[in-house]
Amino acid sequence: xxxxxxxxxxxxxxxxxxxxxxxxxxxxxxxxxxxxxxxxxxxxxxxxxxxxxxxxxxxxxxxxxxxxxxxxxxxxxxxxxxxxxxxxxxxxxxxxxxxxxxxxxxxxxxxxxxxxxxxxxxxxxxxxxxxxxxxxxxxxxxxxxxxxxxxxxxxxxxxxxxxxxxxxxxxxxxxxxxxxxxxxxxxxxxxxxxxxxxxxxxxxxxxxxxxxxxxxxxxxxxxxxxxxxxxxxxxxxxxxxxxxxxxxxxxxxxxxxxxxxxxxx
Amino acid sequence: xxxxxxxxxxxxxxxxxxxxxxxxxxxxxxxxxxxxxxxxxxxxxxxxxxxxxxxxxxxxxxxxxxxxxxxxxxxxxxxxxxxxxxxxxxxxxxxxxxxxxxxxxxxxxxxxxxxxxxxxxxxxxxxxxxxxxxxxxxxxxxxxxxxxxxxxxxxxxxxxxxxxxxxxxxxxxxxxxxxxxxxxxxxxxxxxxxxxxxxxxxxxxxxxxxxxxxxxxxxxxxxxxxxxxxxxxxxxxxxxxxxxxxx
Lengths: 265, 247
Hints:
The complex is a heterodimer of chains A (about 260) and B (about 250). Chain A has about 260 residues and is α+β, with helices and mostly antiparallel strands. In chain A, about 20% of the residues lie in helices and about 45% in strands.
């Protein structure tokens, strides 16, 4: 018996960590190219991992073991041993969802920015919109359906908001001037349970300004309940035949009781 | 004295027979193995959700200490840009449950401001949780309707509590196809214990889940204290055993 118990416990111990580890020892990385006019090769730990990576492109997510990674970016087809144009040591923590972006700073110089994406769960019926200003451009406002969503966003800053799922008209305008539309997306779909991340990239003065979009799904949560009855028509009462039968039984008891009390009286 | 004894005997006999007969005839709230269905729905899927395009096209990063070899050259990744398609290929339009005489239009339903599922205000309509799975997709497709509504009387799911395992359930889709399900289990959950993670799961076996209210009714709150849930599986699936085998 004891042996059987031990086996059971051992089996349970084997099962639990296996599933827990699968979820926590990896991180997720996406790469975004936001430096205009430059096609690049991306090296991760000295291995060519993205070749001929073009401006405005967003990769699909890649699951990697949590670790430190050397990211080197070279102009496409450069000698792998040449000095990289951009380099960054990125630490990927377990369970993190990160985006590594090559982009312009406010002055138009290329740099690498590492973003941590919000993958916390989203209330049922909502989606999440994240806006990241990574362009050589002044402060901007972001309008959704002509209402202010984020105001005064500077290069290097982001705004995150959970909104009801649906299609939104999104405008990027000069800060404080709703009429100075920089760019407009007529219908940006924010799916339920999904974080839609919009990157403003390029150089506003150099005519290369544009948007790049990444989306992370599966952040949904179930509705809290299903309210589906207010009438009270569903009687849990007793059927009529049972009530009649009980009444007869009651009458019999009463009759018997009366007889007994008479006898004693 | 004899008549008193006779009266008591008749009384006890009637009481016993009535209650016994009632207990036997009373429909049971539960039927089938609901727990197995719930478990199957919340067990992590080994395959991706069918309607999500998933792609891990970038080769994994080799360890930096590994010697470089020509045959281990990472494959060139393919890029995709933009949103993952979230839409459903086809959506339910009609629900039919011959066993309880139900034939009702199905309308897409979302979420109320308080976070609960939207259930059609018209008691003759059934709501389909549009953010979850559609019938025919992986996971639980949820159809909910009123058992009754104050002022409107009984609703389309008034008799859902009478659906028995084995009953046929048909869902007509907007592409003129029909999916046939077989009721697998019926159960009643206290509203506080409704297993929403399983009922609204978007992964796992393709289950059809019908939900309405039931249990005790609180007249002051005008609300039932429980939910009646029927789980159904595609008819072409083998008997109940097959569901457990997937656990």
